[in-house]
Each structure stands twice: as C-alpha cells, then as structure tokens.
Design a protein that fits this description.
With about 290 residues, the protein is mostly beta strands. The protein is about 10% helix and about 40% strand. It is built from 3 helices and 19 strands. Strands 9, 10, 11, 12, 13, 14, 15, 16, 17, 18 and 19 form an 11-stranded antiparallel sheet that branches.
Length: about 290
C-alpha cells in the first residue's frame, strides 16, 4: 500500500520516531505510474481544503507498507484508483518512507523495522531517531509468560516481537535496541494470546477511538481520541485537529468519555497455525474491520 505523508508527519517519523499512520491509502501498484509530486497530488487526492500539499511541490513523501488488517475499502465515486481507509494504527513492520522529487527520481528516507527496532534513517549507518512511547491502545498486544506486552507480528505470522519501555526485572532474553527500547523475538507458538484492543467511546456525541492514554502533571488521565465515522462537520465544530483529509484527532480528559466499549480484535493472520498465515499481499482477513 502507499500513503502520501504530510510534511509535519514525515518530520515526526524522521526526528521523533513517530510510529503511527491513518487516513486514505491506495495500492502502490495502482499508482506506480505517478513518479512526480504533480502526479501524486492527483492520484492521492491531495487537493482537499486546507491541504499542506501543492501540485508544484519540490517533493512529496510517501509511506509504503504491506497491507494491514485495519484497512477498509471505500467506494468513492469519481476517484481514479481504488481507495482504502486506514484507522489510526501503528506503522506495519518493514514500511519505507520515500521522497518523490519533481524530476521523477525518488530517495529512500527511512525504514521502519518493527516495534522493537523502530526507524532507521537511510544513508546514516545505524542512526535511529528516538522511539515514540508505547501504547497498548493501538497495535498488537501479546500475552507471554502471563504478562501482556506490546508486540508486532513478523515473518508472515511466524514470529512475534515483544517490546518493553524499561529494562526487564529479570534475565528473560530481551535485548536493547540502539534507540533504547527493549525487545525480544519469540515464535508465534510461545504467545498464548495475540490481539489488538479496540477501545471506542463517545465524546460530546461523537464516535471516537481511544489511541493513547497517560496521566498529566495533576495525575488526571488524558486520552488521545481519533474520530470514527463520517461526521466530519461535527468533528470540525467540536474543535478536533485535522491531521489530514478525513482524519481528526484531539486530546481530552478520559472522564469526558461516555459509552466506553473494549473489544479484542484478532485478524486471521495473527491466529496460530500455518493455515492462518497467508503470504504478503493477500487479503485473507476475516476480522470485523476489513474485507479487503
């Protein structure tokens, strides 16, 4: 898949280790002909009101990644290529951030390994930006040795990468990445549970998903929420910040949320057993988020 990345988000990936994405995406093969910013501007529909993109930009950055379980096909009349919507998600392993220049050339800026290693900047041997804080609200969660840890699924479902923000209390085989995060790779069979939390709620009547939680200086719980659904005018009226076309987020006190619902979602590709691990590029996903 391919997604146009705003300049602010691209800088966050490269300098802050930001590991999230969301919004409209297309299949990379469908837009392979688009090799200049002007062409990307058209095929990605970047002319929306308030867009930071311009067809005469010197360059536009795109994120390329393997299809993710959270993708949902969108039938948009008049759009020149098939279009998908991606909910606020952690960046899939092995994603690449690429800069497309006006002369038709491209430059690899960085690769995202997985939750354990994060981003590696291209052309800078071993140089990595700091890693973003872990959140159990987005991305895979694995139960290993009785504990729940943030995780990633790699090797076409055969391996799970476990991550810790702090050093383990005992010697458990974790190693520290250059970025400072602790991680360990284990076989899928070593993990007893593997799922993603889907924490949804309403804020002032607006359907939202909770994508982060933390305590502020006064020890109040703050939640970062991402808008769900198509009520964009309501999101605008409530003052949510527009990340890009159709993607609105803000931070609120958790006490302001109502109708909280927590589900555990398990894509077919995360289930144990060889029959549930189709190869890259397939769409044999049967969770309730996507039938791509």
């Amino acid at each position: 898949m391919q997604k146009a990345v705003t300049p602010d988000l691209s800088a966050a990936h490269l300098t802050q280790g930001y590991d999230r994405l969301g919004g409209y995406v297309v299949r990379a093969s469908d837009v392979a002909f688009a090799t200049t910013p002007a062409q990307l501007y058209e095929v990605h529909g970047l002319g929306y009101p308030g867009s930071p993109f311009h067809r005469w930009d010197e360059h536009i950055d795109v994120l390329r990644f393997w299809s993710a379980p959270q993708l949902q096909y969108r039938d948009v009349p008049g759009y020149i290529v098939p279009l998908w919507w991606l909910r606020h998600s952690r960046i899939p392993p092995q994603a690449e951030l690429v800069r497309i220049h006006r002369d038709g050339t491209s430059t690899l800026l960085a690769r995202y390994g997985d939750i354990g290693t994060g981003w590696t900047l291209a052309g800078h041997e071993g140089l990595r930006p700091p890693m973003a804080s872990l959140s159990r609200c987005v991305g895979p969660v694995a139960k290993w040795h009785g504990a729940y840890l943030e995780a990633d699924v790699v090797d076409e479902g055969r391996t799970v990468v476990l991550a810790l923000a702090n050093p383990p209390l005992a010697e458990t085989g974790f190693e520290q990445a250059p970025s400072g995060r602790w991680f360990r790779r284990v076989p899928r069979e070593a993990v007893s549970e593997l799922f993603e939390l889907d924490l949804t709620a309403r804020w002032n009547g607006l359907a939202v998903r909770v994508v982060d939680q933390w305590q502020d200086a006064q020890r109040y719980v703050v939640a970062r929420i991402s808008h769900l659904g198509d009520d964009l005018q309501r999101a605008e009226r409530l003052g949510l910040f527009r990340i890009e076309a159709g993607l609105y987020e803000t931070e609120v006190y958790a006490a302001e949320l109502t109708d909280l619902t927590t589900n555990q979602v398990v894509p077919a590709t995360w289930s144990p057993g060889p029959a549930a691990t189709p190869g890259r590029g397939t769409h044999a996903l049967t969770d309730r988020w996507v039938q791509a």
